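Mods, move this if it's the wrong board.
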Amino acid sequence: MAAPKQFLDYVDANTDAFIHRLSEAVAIPSISGDAKRREDVMKMGRWLEAELNKFGVKTEQIPLGKQHTEGQVLDLPPAIVGRIGDDPKKKTILIYGHFDVQPAEVSDGWNTEPFQLVVDEKSGRMFGRGSTDDKGPIMGWLNVLEAHHKLGLSLPVNLRFCFEGMEESGSEGLDEFIASEVKKENSRFKGIDAVCISDNYWLNDRTPALTYGLRGLTYFNVIVSGPGADLHSGSFGGSVHEPMTALIALLGKLVTQDGRILIPGVYDGISTADESELELYQKLDFSVADLEAAVGGKIAVSDDKPTVIMARMRNPSLSIHGIEGAFSGVGAKTVIPATVGGKFSIRLVPPQKPDDIRAKVEKYLEAEFAKLNTKCKLKVEYLHGGIPWVADHRHWNYEAAKRATESVYLKSPDFTREGGSIPVTLSFAEHLGVNVLLLPMGRGNDGAHSTNEKLDKSNYIQGTKLLGSYLYEVGEITKA
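Not the wrong board. Structure tokens:
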């Protein structure tokens, strides 16, 4: 059943108000990875809860415990759990999203203030940190709720909500809450039939997508230390073992230029794609040119389309992210850092498991470090991890999303696996035992986590219609 015309018309008529709502959300710098911004994350949660309450959603703030970070003990941002509708004749859908964001500074290379939504009327692009990841999609759900509330329309399904403020920092505390909650007789998650998450993106900027798989994650910090304090290279260079030299050598032993991971055993158990799977990738509306346009350079690891697609979503990958403790300012500084830390992560695919990969990484790093014959010291920190996930894309949950996509965008969606990680996805799938759908709002060139992150106005407004239409299709497709 298509969404009512009055709902669709309401969305169009309230475009400016919906954009204002997104601008209010973007203005709150809810950076979960920065201890100094923890109150802003809390503020964002309170703002979101108040918005939900306006439209009849009953909410609770669920404490998730403490976090030890940067030498401090901080309260984790509470999860915002809500519910609206208890009709036993309707399906119950759990909606998940996160209201925290990645760090952002103008000095990083932003063309605009990152925590101010800037709308380019000519291109229709709305720039701001969190615009697409994940505040835009959450605002889309608020827009759907507002439309039904103001129009006096009953929702076609019962809704449950779980919004968190630590997704960008490994969803700390949330998995434990979900695991304990489902065991309760009067669980807040009781009766849920399926889950919908809108926290990912189309493959390109043309064709909507439905995502049925995510890569997992392991994240490491390799710390190398030597002298008791930073040294002057003129006084001590050449006469001591230098931590930076050892760290660079170690990082250089992790991965090749074409993305091949060098850690023994990492690829164990991963099957080779057969002809039918390769044909599936060949049919996707995605090209090597799309990838290179999205990244702003002709740097794809291959000119073969299936090879690039598999590298992005099917195969594991290792990326080196940065070095802490090293000089990175302008000009010259002749310092030998006393301690440096190199951060890298591995994106995982089935059947890889974070604990197994962690053990292999630590064993390899220690062995390679020993070969350097340095007197520096090594410490490997494991920061966080997530298990990879694949869902049944033939489930009614996906069929409803497919029909909704076709009604809003007038074209069939691509069915994709995604290269990123959303730790809670597998938690919901395993603990609730239900199908989980990833229903993206944004485009493949939105630049989530990057400078000048954006969400196209058309994706925001049409995406709001898509979320609402999905609910109506669920209501129709699951009728007895």
